[in-house]
């Protein structure tokens, strides 16, 4: 499962490339080594201080969002497990592969965030919606 730090690192990598900077050049701007920039772009060694320094150097703003943790009921857990099983079957994946794929491409996050609506739809609609979200986020199953 990817962490939010991986996502932050990827965003910094993308912005650095947009600006045509090498890791060495960005490191010099913020006072760290090229290897430290590499670690950050891979989601390691990220602190609030690092985020602020890189944001300033890359001419972007960083925002932090705090939101309450969704309460997870047993019904939601059963629904998610069943949905993942159907997703795995439809795309000929093991349950572990389906779980990893849905986690990586935000299908599970979508299902949890949209549970109140999704659980009222057919299971096939749910699987189709997760597949569409994953595709939108870089997944390649069809």
Automatic annotation (TrEMBL):
- Give the transmembrane ranges: none
Query: What molecular functions are annotated in GO for this chain?
Result: DNA binding
Return the InterPro entries for the record. Cro/C1-type_HTH, DUF3791, Lambda_DNA-bd_dom_sf
State the source organism's domain of life: Bacteria
HTH cro/C1-type domain residues are 14-66
**Which Gene3D superfamilies would you find in this protein's record?**
lambda repressor-like DNA-binding domains (1.10.260.40)
Q: Which protein are we looking at?
A: DUF3791 domain-containing protein
Q: Which organism is it from?
A: Paramuribaculum intestinale
